[in-house]
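User: Could you check the structure of this?
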Amino acid sequence: MIGTWINLGTVFLGGTLGWALGERFPARAREAATLGVGLVTLVLGIQMALKTQNVLVLLLSVIVGGAVGGALGISAALERASQRVEKLFRGQPVAQAFLTASLLFCVGPMTLVGAIQDGLFGDWTILGAKAVLDGISAAALAAALGPGVLLSLFVILVYQGGVTLLARLFAQALAGFNPQDPAVVELTAAGGAIVLAIGLSLLRLRDTKPADFLPALLLAPWFALLFRALGW
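Assistant: Sure, the predicted structure tokens are below.
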């Protein structure tokens, strides 16, 4: 789990620095930081989504996943939980910061592939590169949105660290892991759609409730396998 520990360290340092300096930044500078992260997030989301090998798989995953997430009220539940913590930070936008940072740092091919590489082979180079990007993003987000970014550390530890530990436990079963497998590719594409939703929210173009689309990450690999079995 070396890669995950490094990732936690860069997010902590970046988030702490951004939080400490945030109030010293002019409002326009903090707004520009949020817009900058939003624009780059859109680019990342587009790159990921365009990797799909079957647009129908991506479409079904996002539509069905969004419907399931909306019915379960994932965004609303996270919002309520975050608002309880928000009181500890004098009303700063903890809910938005926590949700945005958690999804941005954990949804993506670098997280999944990097964590599995770390677990299988002890190769944390992918997570090391991701850690640098996350540290920079954490500083910008914390300067603009406040200390809620630091709460994403728990999500990184549980999700990214959990994937690494599972890969280590099931190393033999995952020995043939291929990042170009349709199931992995479509999971990445679905993740890209969610990252796009994050970007739209950061740019305040639309309140997309990105967390409601998280079930798409579970559905995309299954739809990919089903369509491959059917020869579509």
